[in-house]
Every structure is written in C-alpha cells, then in structure tokens.
Design brief:
heterodimer, A: alpha+beta, Sufe protein. Chain: A, 6 helices, B: Aspartate Aminotransferase, domain 1, Aspartate Aminotransferase, domain 2, 2 domains, 17 strands, 41% helix
C-alpha cells in the first residue's frame, strides 16, 4: 500500500467511532502495538520536548528507506505517534517529504497537532520531514 | 449555606454552554476566570458610546473617557486600600507589572553584590523578570524553598535575608499548589531589614480581600482577567515614595512632561509609568468586575470556596491512586493532583471530551514540579460559580480515566 492508501485505511478505521472516548480507547490499543523503543535511545538526543508530553524519535536509513522508531510518555500521544509511524516509516525520503498528512484532520485529531498543544507531535512531524530531507540530501551526494 | 450559586451562574453566559455534548465544567479559573454580564456590558457599552483616547483630547468623548479611566483607578485604589491614586499604575497584567517593576527597580537599586529573594513556588512571571534583571545588573537571585506540604520554609527565608538583599518578590498564593503564604509576616521580617517587598497577587485577587496598607506591601501586582475582569488590564501598586524614586519603564506618549531632543522630563505619578495609549476600556471593565466581587462579598466567597475545596479534596481522595500536591494548612480552592501511573496529559484529554476543563502540565511553575520530581500535574482551580455537582462530574470523569488507562 502506498502512503495515501494507508491514510485512507486509518480514516476508515476511525469512521466506526462516533464517541470520542472510543477513539481514545482505540489510540490506547494502538499505543500498545507500537514496537518498543530501545531505552538507550530515550535520551535527550532523541527527545522532542513538548511542554505537556514528551516524544522520542529516531530515524535510520535501511535499504534506501527511512525507518522511524518513537515513543512518548503519554499514551494518547503515543497512539498518535504509532499512526504517524504507520504512515511515514519504511518509505523513501522523497515520498515522506511530499506527503500531505490528511488523515490527522480527517479523524478529528488536528487539535493535537496545533502549535499551542505543545505535546511534541507537531515538532515530531516536522522532525520526521527534516530527517527525510537530510537523508535525501545525503543519498543524492552518494 | 446562604450562597445562591445557581443565581450567580446566570450572570456568566459562558457557563451555560456545552462542550463535546456535555454542559461545561470550568475548573481552569487559576488560568483565567469567566466574565459576568456586567463586565461584558461595560466593555460593549464603552465601545458603543464612549470610546475615545484618554488624557489627550479636549473634546467631549475624550474627557468622558478620561473620567471613566480615572474613576476606575479610584475604584482600584479603594478596593486594595491604597493611600492615593498616585500609587495605582495600570499595566497589561501581572506579568507586565512585575516586568515593569523589575526593570525600574533594577535600574535604581541592583548591582554587583546585591541580592533579590524569591521563592521556589513562584510563577515563571515572578522568576524570569528577576533573573533577567539580575543578569543585566550582576545581582544574585536567592530562592526560599518550600516543604513537602507546599509551605514556605520561613526559617530559610530569615537566613537568606541579609544586608545584600535589595528586594523580596513573593507570591501571595501559589497558582500550582494553592498555598496561601504568610505575606504579612514576610513583609514584617523584610522591613526589619529595611528591604521592600513585591507581592504577586495574581491568584489572591479573586479569592482574598486585599488591603495593601494592612499588609504594608511596598509593591503589589495583579491581573484583571483572573478576577472576572477583561484581558489585558492589570495593576502595579507601589508606595508613592518608592515609585517616585524609580525611573520609568517605557518611554512614549502620555508619560512625559516636556519633550525636546536635548532633554525629556517625565510626568508625575502615576502617568510616569503609563506610556502609550492605555487599556482604558479594560480598566473600566476591571472596575465593574471589582464591583461585582464586592457585591457578592469576599467573606461569602471565601466561605463558599472553602466549602468547595473541602468537598473536592474529600471526593478526590476516594479516587484510587490519586495524590494531591500541595497540602498547606492555608489553601485556596485549587487542587493539583496526579493519578498513579497516568500521564496528566492523557487524563486531561479524556476529561476534556467529558466537558471538563482542567489545566495539565507545569502551570508555569517548573521549579515546583522539579521539587516533587514530577513533570506536571492536573489542576482543578475552582471559583465561586462552581458547584459540588461539577466536582461530582470531575470525580466520575477521573473514574472513567482510571478505567481507560488502568
């Protein structure tokens, strides 16, 4: 599936919920599915500090694709992190840079990516795109 | 109890709205309070009927506007029992007041070898301006710690007071712990060493009756928006003889006597500290808000809010794994708490969807969080328009949070 198809898939998964707390319960489930981040990477080097919750993000280039690993200290934030990883991880850097993350808005979580929320998610998306740019530049030089 | 909260609630239009399908429970009064119709009406009427810039025009509206503004100053003077309106400076809020004072006071009195005393429970607004001025002037910042209950360690304060101390800046009430500090005693001790005291009254103004002369406070800062008044208006009170000696904080129109390119002389108090077009409409709204509070009566407000605090504390203690931060003997109706193993942000997100507005995070008091070695709390800060029914909703909401996050 390409990135847009995955986004459509996520939108369809969330469409069944008409209660907010059911959406949150689903995010809690998703947070449990996120692969555990190696604790030695949960350091300041990988920390994206939000005032409200913390996010750790790491990016590796594996066979020309970026593999993101991440974690958060808040569970709902972690659930959203897992969605971002599902869409953006294991992709070409160029693809990551060009993708518009429409699903966030469509499943009603846009407020979680507002600059005022300071939960680290907006910075995380920016950081993911920056990693993509950095790896794209690096690959072009090789 | 003789307190008709339902009648009072009718004065606050915002409180009748629904959020995510639930009637709103507004427990974020420590951040800002909602406004009664009377305040909204003052602001609306001002724009519709009176708006004109103050102190400058000779025309009818400008004079009327000036009169309203100066009446607001008199209202504030009376409310805090200042000796003269020369001692009441309008600012943009508590932060504006403290920055103004820190700058002016620092220019005049701080330098290498001098010290400023603050406390561990200050809001960032009463830390950072002093840090900035200390850095600029080569002065040192000293910090009075608090104990596990969230009360200042007065013995430490006494030790820190010295002949190097130039000013003490202390909050009357902690915004994150709810502690009411013994400011009168702090002022008495500081004055024994001939040190002036600034009281940060941001949290005190909606809850306590303030008498700056009884406290013998040298400076007192507060915001209108935390006391049911409009945003963007605040007050810096200062004893006249102290303000007289301080240089102005900002230059501009209205604060000057004579301006030439060679030399500018400044206007008298309080105008020396009011550069530019002041928020006269905010000042009028603040005056109405203070009237509103007086109308209910601070004694009755205190009594009712104490009842809310006791009810909420008792109710929250029954939630398993819930810990309250800040258990001072003297407290306002603000409760900071955490639920064992649950991130405050997660809890706050769920409560929001249940229509309950609490604050989550550090509440601009990171040193307080560091003291307890936590990253943040949930804070329910209640006002006189809140009800025990709303506390029951919070209680039920927290049970829901517990179910969801285990």
């Amino acid at each position: 599936m390409n990135m847009n198809e995955i986004q459509e898939e996520i939108i369809a998964e969330f469409e069944v919920f008409d209660d907010w707390l059911d959406k949150y319960n689903y995010l809690i489930d998703l947070s449990n599915d996120l692969p555990i981040m190696d604790p030695r990477y949960k350091t300041n080097e990988y920390l994206i500090n939000g005032c409200q919750s913390k996010v750790w993000l790491r990016a590796d280039l594996v066979d020309g694709k970026i593999r993101f690993t991440a974690d958060s200290d808040a569970i709902i934030t972690k659930g959203i992190v897992s969605l971002l990883i599902r869409v953006l991880s294991e992709r070409d850097p160029a693809e990551i840079m060009d993708t518009d993350l429409v699903f966030i808005d469509r499943i009603g979580l846009r407020e979680n990516l507002s600059p005022t929320r300071s939960n680290g998610l907006l910075s995380m998306v920016k950081q993911m795109k920056l990693y993509a740019l950095a790896y794209k530049t690096k690959m072009a030089q090789q | 109890m003789d307190f008709d909260v339902e009648k009072i609630r009718q004065d606050f239009p915002l409180l009748s709205q629904k959020v995510h399908g639930h009637p709103i429970v507004y427990f974020d009064n420590g951040a800002t309070t909602q406004k009664p119709r009377q305040v909204i009406e003052t602001v609306r009427r001002y724009y519709e009927e009176e708006n004109a810039s103050i102190h400058r025009g000779v025309h009818f509206l400008s004079e009327r506007s000036t009169e309203t503004y100066e009446k607001a100053r008199e209202k504030v003077r009376k409310y805090i029992n200042a000796a003269s309106t020369n001692e009441v400076i309008f600012t943009s809020g508590t932060t504006g007041s403290i920055n103004a004072l820190a700058f002016s006071f620092g220019e005049k009195h701080l330098g290498p070898g001098t010290e400023v005393i603050i406390t561990e429970m200050e809001h960032h607004s009463n830390i950072v301006p002093w840090q900035m001025v200390c850095e600029r002037k080569g002065a040192k910042l000293k910090v009075v710690p608090f104990n596990e209950k969230g009360e200042l360690v007065m013995a430490e304060f006494k030790k820190l007071l010295s002949d190097k101390t130039r000013i003490v800046a202390v909050t009357q009430i902690s915004n994150s712990l709810g502690t009411i500090n013994p400011v009168k005693e702090i002022i008495r001790l500081a004055h024994k060493s001939e040190v002036p005291v600034l009281v940060d009254g941001a949290q005190a103004i909606p809850h306590e009756s303030i008498d700056v002369r009884d406290l013998d406070a040298d400076f007192y800062a507060f915001s209108g928006h935390k006391a049911y008044g409009p945003n963007g208006i605040g007050v810096l009170y200062g004893k006249e003889k102290l303000l007289y000696d301080l240089p102005p904080y900002q230059g501009g129109g209205d604060m000057v006597d004579c301006v030439s390119f060679e030399k500018t002389t400044y206007d008298q108090l309080p105008f020396k500290f009011e550069a530019g077009t002041m928020n006269y409409i905010g000042a009028a709204g603040l005056a109405t808000a203070l009237d509103y509070i007086s109308g209910i009566g601070l004694d009755r407000i205190r009594e009712y809010e104490k009842y809310l605090l006791e009810y909420a504390t008792m109710k929250l203690m029954t939630v398993s794994g819930l810990e309250i931060y800040g258990n001072a003997a003297e407290k306002i109706s603000t409760i900071s708490f955490l639920m064992d193993g649950i991130h405050p942000y997660d809890a706050g997100m769920v409560l929001d969807k249940l229509g309950i507005a609490v604050r989550t995070g550090t509440h601009c008091t990171q040193p307080v969080m560091d003291h307890f070695k936590i990253t943040g709390t949930l804070r329910a800060s209640m006002a006189f328009y809140n009800t025990t029914g709303e506390i029951d909703r919070l209680h039920a909401g927290l049970h829901r949070v517990r179910e969801m996050f285990g």
